[in-house]
Write a structure and sequence with these properties.
By secondary structure, the protein is mainly α. It has helices spanning 2-5, 11-23, 65-150, 153-162, 187-191; strands spanning 26-33, 41-48, 55-60. 61% of the residues lie in helices and 11% in strands.
Length: 192
């Protein structure tokens, strides 16, 4: 069978391929009428792991009486077990989904609460900054008035007279004001 299918490799790899083919979506039951005999129908089971892969084909024999009943019973029992298994898995998934939804809503509630606390805290900090900047500006004003008494114009003039070094700041050329136009001088006014 391995040679007719065309799957190389070890026997275990071939069996794995057959099992994967039977579990795939491309499993078909083909019923055909035999034209050579009295019109008896025959069936075969065709499976393919995926498109482009080799086909697996099993010829099915016709069962009668008790053998057919036994196969039908086994098939029905296995289908029922598979259905129950899928139903149990669905119920477990539903319960898990419900638990996750509850946990999500609880986390969202915590998040909203923490967001509110964060906004309240940031508002308090802004108010404290505003109050502290008001206090700083008030202290600067009071220190300026205090320094104003100590640095009277007479004292500053006396200190300025004692200093011989004059600081001269030079403005860069690109920032200097350029004189444009002609400068007119009136000579008559100077003579008077």
């Amino acid at each position: 069978m391995q040679d007719t299918v065309g799957v190389g490799g070890s026997w275990s790899e071939f069996v794995d391929y057959v099992v994967a083919s039977m579990k795939s979506k491309d499993v078909k039951l083909v019923l055909e009428e035999n034209s050579k005999s009295d019109g008896d129908a025959y069936a075969k089971l065709v499976a393919q792991k995926s498109k482009g892969m080799p086909l697996i084909s099993f010829s099915l024999a016709k069962l009668e009486n008790s053998a057919a009943s036994e196969v039908m019973a086994n098939l029905s029992l296995e289908l029922f077990k598979s259905y129950k298994n899928m139903q149990n898995l669905f119920i477990k998934e539903q319960e898990c989904s419900d638990r996750l939804a509850k946990a999500l809503s609880a986390e969202q509630g915590k998040n909203e609460s923490m967001q509110g606390q964060l906004e309240l805290f940031s508002r308090k900090q802004k108010l404290q900054k505003i109050n502290s900047s008001d206090n700083i500006s008030a202290s600067i004003v009071s220190s300026n008035t205090f320094n104003g008494l100590q640095n009277s114009p007479d004292k500053l003039a006396a200190q300025g007279a004692g200093s011989t070094k004059a600081t001269k700041h030079v403005v860069p050329a690109y920032r200097r004001v350029k004189a444009r136009g002609a400068l007119l001088q009136d000579n008559e006014d100077k003579d008077d």
